[in-house]
Amino acid sequence: MSKSDFPGWHGTTIIGIRKGGEVVVAGDGQVSLGQTVIKGSARKVRRLKPGGHEVVAGFAGSTADAFTLLERLEAKLEATPGQLQRASVELAKDWRTDKYLQKLEAMLIVTDGKDLFVITGAGDVLEPEHGIAAIGSGGNYALAAARAMIDSDMDAEDIARRAMAIAADICVYTNGNLTVERISA
């Protein structure tokens, strides 16, 4: 099957929300191939502990590509303990300039409880406005829902869960099987 004939993997909605001194990263569990759900319970949000400093990362895109990027991020964090921003920038630079990494198709949301970033293969390390970041097939739906709720009395986890439920109701590539990780600064 040629690359142009391959129907492509779809699925994943990841959201990161900073509110009240903590950050929550939530991701759904759906992986689809074309119009078929291949797996409904994938775990796309991970807790990392490079150098003893906790980081939570969520990924959208190719799983193998995302794992490669997570391994690279861990190596950068081990080289610069406790410096998520610096490690993220170094990863983004490598991702943009390395011929092998340039082919990777994934995006990351990373946080250490203090900083929250979206890292892309275009060399971007973005700190989201309003303390909300979302990526993946249903990312824009989850982002819009979370933005509407951010000023409510709900905490970050409640907002993430409600926003993901709304995204799952709208996006056929998103389900309600969530992985949620919470981290404080």
Q: Would you kindly provide a brief summary of this structure?
A:
With 185 residues, the chain is an alpha+beta fold.
Question: Any overview of this molecule?
Answer:
Helices cover 31% and strands 30% of the residues. The chain is an alpha+beta fold and 185 residues long. β9 (116-119) and β10 (125-126) form a beta hairpin. α1 packs across α2 and α3 (139-149) packs across α4. The chain is globular, with a radius of gyration of 16 Å.
List the helices and strands and how they pair.
Layout lengths: L8 E2 L2 E7 L2 E6 L3 E3 L2 E4 L5 E4 L6 E7 L1 H17 L4 H14 L8 E6 L4 E4 L5 E2 L5 E5 L2 H11 L6 H15 L8 E6 L1
Antiparallel strand pairs: 1-4, 2-3, 2-11, 3-12, 4-5, 6-7, 7-8, 8-9, 9-10
Helix pairs in contact: 1-2, 3-4
User: What's the multimeric state?
Assistant: single chain
Structural shape: globular
- Major β-sheet strand ordering: 6-7-8-9-10
Report the uncertain regions.
Answer: none
* CA radius of gyration: 16 Å
Structural class: alpha+beta
Q: What gap, in angstroms, lies between the N and C termini? A: 47 Å
pLDDT average, as an integer? 90
- The number of distinct helices, counting runs of at least 4 residues, comes to 4
Q: What is the helix fraction of residues, given as a range?
A: 25-40%
Order of helices and strands: EEEEEEEHHEEEEHHE
Main sheet properties: 5 strands, antiparallel
- Beta-strand fraction estimate: 25-35%
